Amino acid sequence: MSHSHSALVLFSGGQDSTTCLAWALARYSHVETVGFAYGQRHAVELDCRGPVRQGLAAMQDWGERLGDDHLVDLGASLAGIGATALTSDEDIRMTAEGLPSTFVPGRNLVFLAYAGAIAYRRGLRRLVAGMCETDYSGYPDCRDDAVKAMQLALNLGMDRRFVVETPLMWVDKAATWGLAEELGGAPLVELIVEHTHSCYLGDRTTRHDWGRGCGTCPACELRAAGWRRWREERL
After folding, report:
1. Model pTM?
2. What's the chain look like in SS3?
3. Which listed CATH number (3.40.980.10, 3.40.50.620, 3.40.50.10490, 3.40.50.1370) goes with 6-196?
4. Between residues 200 and 165, the one the model is more confident about
């Protein structure tokens, strides 16, 4: 593993971004994080970021590698472009376009643009993000082609040689649980279960084997199904 580079991880406080943060900490000598407040319905995920960072810092030598955290307040800008089930009390459903109503148009593109600007100022060349095209909700800005196009735009627009890394792009949710165990063993899996947040409805009151959430929204269903497959594959 190379420790000669630094990285900026797009870190929401969820399962995928926590796994990506652990992945980056296992590879790079200096890792910073960035999160986004954009009027999300499940803003409780932002409260999870601190405890997760603290937990990761206590593992292996990761505390020595974990650098500054940045929180970008986008206010209601994304929500103002158009109401979605992720930024309002709208019902979670499939739309006429064949996309979930939780899709926030341009969200990941905006995140990468802001992350690139921060990385430019901080002298960081690698952006690590949790987009996945294998086992996901169907968001077009999670696709590999979209991420590669955004990497090119960042490089051209800032005249820097950024590399956008997506460790989860071609793995399903079961493999994401497996990667967490590979990176940090049972302590990392337990940290993800107890302290990360995925539920679109922001439910932190109901505890399941795989973590806290309503258990019925698409994010909970994906996380739960991945947990079950991972546990079955380990038997």
Report:
1. 0.89
2. CCCCCEEEEECCCCHHHHHHHHHHHCCCCEEEEEEEECCCCCCHHHHHHHHHHHHHHCCCCHHHHEEEEEEEECCCHHHHHCCCCCCCCCCCCECCCCCECCCCCCHHHHHHHHHHHHHHHHCCCEEECCCCCCCCCCCHHHCHHHHHHHHHHHHHHHCCCCEEECCCCCCCHHHHHHHHHHHHHHHHHHHHHHHCCCCCCCCCCCEECCEECCCCCHHHHHHHHHHHHHHHHHC
3. 3.40.50.620
4. 165
